[in-house]
Write a structure and sequence with these properties.
The protein contains 8 helices and 5 strands. It is α/β, with parallel strands linked by helices. Helix 3 links the parallel strand 1 and strand 2. The radius of gyration is 29 Å and the shape is elongated.
C-alpha cells in the first residue's frame, strides 16, 4: 500500500510540474468530444432503395414523392422489366418498397342483406371480418415464401406498430391506406438452424361425417 501511495504522490508531483501534461489531460479530451460530436452521426441518410408502385393512384404517387424527398432514402430507378429482387441481388439498392394495388373491397353480403330490407350491422359480413386484412396477410405470407425461395431473409414484424402514427406521418400513409406491420428483407448473414415442426395432429383437426 505504501508503494502505491508513493507512486501516486510521484505522479501527482510530475503532473503539477509539467504544464503540457495538464493541458493534454484536461483540454485534449474536450477537443476529442467536440470533434466526435460534430463528425459522427448515427442518422441514416442516402440509403439506396427501389420503389415499385403497383397502385398508380394519386395516393401512391404522393407516397412515392414523400419517400423520394426524404433525406433518409435515395430512390434508385428500376430498369425496364427489372424486379426489386434483381436490384437487391445486383447491389443497386439496400431495400425495396413495393406499393401494392389497393381497391376498396365491396361488401356484397351487406349489400344483399340491405337490398332485402335487413340490417347488415346485425350480421357478420365481410366488413366485420376485415377481408382486406385477411387478403393482406395471405399476400405477406406469399411474399415471405418467395423471399425464402430466392435465398433472402424476411420477417413480418409487428413491433414497428408501436410507432404506427409516426411512421404513417413520415411516409405519407393516409386513408384508405393503413399500416399493419413492416417486413424486414435482406440477405441473411448465416443460414438459421431449422426448428422442429409440430406434429400434424396437433395443428389439424379432421371432421368426418
Amino acid at each position: 500500500m505504501k508503494r502505491i501511495i508513493a507512486q501516486v504522490r510521484k505522479e501527482l508531483t510530475q503532473f503539477s510540474r509539467d504544464k503540457m501534461t495538464v493541458v493534454l489531460a484536461l483540454v485534449l479530451p474536450l477537443i476529442i468530444m467536440w470533434l466526435l460530436g460534430c463528425a459522427v452521426s448515427l442518422t441514416v441518410t442516402d440509403l439506396p432503395v427501389v420503389v415499385q408502385d403497383w397502385d398508380q393512384t394519386v395516393t401512391s404517387r404522393r407516397y412515392y414523392d414523400t419517400i423520394k424527398s426524404s433525406l433518409t432514402f435515395r430512390v434508385v430507378e428500376l430498369g425496364l422489366n427489372e424486379s426489386p429482387e434483381s436490384a437487391l441481388d445486383k447491389g443497386k439498392a439496400r431495400a425495396a418498397i413495393v406499393i401494392p394495388q389497393y381497391r376498396p373491397y365491396p361488401d356484397l353480403i351487406a349489400d344483399l342483406i340491405a337490398s332485402g330490407g335487413g340490417d347488415p350491422a346485425a350480421f357478420s359480413t365481410a366488413a366485420a371480418m376485415q377481408a382486406e386484412l385477411c387478403s393482406t396477410s395471405a399476400a405477406v405470407m406469399a411474399l415471405l415464401l418467395q423471399a425464402y425461395a430466392e435465398g433472402l431473409g424476411a420477417c413480418w414484424m409487428a413491433g414497428p406498430m408501436v410507432a404506427r402514427r409516426e411512421i404513417e406521418a413520415a411516409l405519407g400513409i393516409a386513408p384508405p391506406w393503413r399500416m399493419i406491420g413492416a417486413i424486414a428483407l435482406g440477405h441473411p448473414a448465416a443460414a438459421p438452424t431449422p426448428k422442429p415442426r409440430k406434429p400434424l395432429e396437433r395443428v389439424v383437426s379432421w371432421i368426418e361425417d
